[in-house]
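Final report, Chapter 2: Outcomes

The project's central promise was a pipeline that accepts a single protein chain and returns its three-dimensional structure in a standardized token representation, suitable for archiving and comparison. That pipeline is now operational. To close this chapter, we reproduce one record exactly as it appears in the project archive, with the input sequence first and the structure output second.
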Amino acid sequence: MIVKVLEVIATSEISFDDAVRNAVKEVSRTIKNIDSVYVKDMKCHVKDGEISTYGCVCKVSFRVE
């Protein structure tokens, strides 16, 4: 079995959890057989003293057929 890893950056205005879900949703549009997601890094953008967006760098692992 061969597994490839794709690194993506995803964002959300709601939460880190939602950002990770957005990463999986977007990658799954073109990639099949996703096995796991490793969250490599997280950050927030701040505007006017409030968190405006949540972001994460994700490594998405998938099996190659």
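Archive annotation: The mean pLDDT is 96.
This record, like all others produced under the grant, will remain available to the consortium after the project formally closes.
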